[in-house]
Amino acid sequence: MNKIPRSALVAGLLLYLLLLSGCVTNQPTNPDAKTAGRKAAESNTQLGVEYMGRGQLEVALGKLKKAVRDDPDYAPAHTVLAILYTRLGESELAATQYKLALQADPTNGDVNNNYGTYLCRTGKQKEAIKHFLKALDDPFYRSPAVALTNAATCVMGTGNLADADNYLRSALKYDPEFPEALLSMASLKYQQKDYLRSRAFLQRFEAVTAQTAESLFMGYEIETALGDKKTARQYLSLLNSKFPESKEAGKARRINRT
Predict the structure, then answer these.
(1) Contact assessment for residue 217 and residue 183, using Cβ atoms and an 8 Å cutoff
(2) Separation of alpha carbons 67 and 130, rounded Å
(3) Which end of the chain has less Cβ packing within 10 Å, N or C?
(4) Least confident span in 30-39, 41-50, 52-61
(5) Can you give the pLDDT at residue 128?
(6) CB 109 within 8 A of CB 79
């Protein structure tokens, strides 16, 4: 199962919170000018997010570039610009913006989580874990379960299942119904061949959120491993009907052709 994209998905959940939380920075010599610059940066960042959501990436890029000019110390603008550069395939520019966000607000939990996600996706797992854990040191960080789940996902990508288990258990202590942690734990237990516990975590996931292509394929794999062919077929049928074009549906079809 592909783990690193799962980490990127969890980070994406923080975008709205990150924009709301803002950043604490040093006060400028001219507070009025700073206030105007911050307000303009916030406005242009919000517009950038809206245009990204509509798929108008060129317009979004212009708004976000203006936002970082309006207030170079506004970390959310740098982070959203980094996310956009990642979507555009501009990895080096994305890295620069993530670093500027961290420079603007080095203790911010959202900033550290998002930078950690970027580092993990680019193969820098050890450095990524440091930032995920640093996010937890921020007393105002509202989503510790997200950073811990990202840390688990990141180390799972290297085969370190023991640390992944610890991070996920910690995440579920913060939020016992956090869907991403539940699904990741189901995946972890499946990899450990603990299929009954894998099923239990998947059932907890299904109780709190809608099924996804990934969860349905996982259900198919778990029930196949447990020898419950009827339930496995039900998962497969749902996967093919709800997400026929997904990579998981394609993988299931290839498995059943062999």
Answers:
(1) no
(2) 28
(3) C
(4) 30-39
(5) 94
(6) no
- Kindly tell me the sign of the dihedral angle through the C-alpha atoms of 121, 144, 108, 160: negative
CB 145 within 8 Å of CB 114: no
pLDDT at 257: 78
Per residue in 77-107, pLDDT tens?
A: 999 999 999 899 999 999 999 999 999 999 9
Mean pLDDT along residues 163-188 = 96
Pairwise CA distance, residues 52 & 83, whole Å: 10
Residue 15, CB-side half-sphere exposure with 13 Å CA sphere: 20
41-47 long-range contacts, CB within 8 A, separation 24+: 41/67, 41/68, 41/70, 41/71, 41/74, 41/77, 42/67, 42/74, 42/76, 43/67, 44/70, 44/77, 45/19, 45/74, 45/76, 45/77, 45/80, 46/19
Q: What angle do CA 211, 157, 134 make, to 5 degrees?
A: 95
Q: Looking at 122-258, list the stretches that DSSP marks H as alpha helix, in order from N- to C-terminal side.
A: 125-135, 144-156, 161-174, 179-191, 195-208, 213-226, 229-242, 247-257
Instruction: Categorize the per-residue pLDDT at 146 as very low, low, confident or very high, splitting at 50, 70 and 90.
Output: very high
Q: What is the value of pTM for the model shown?
A: 0.82
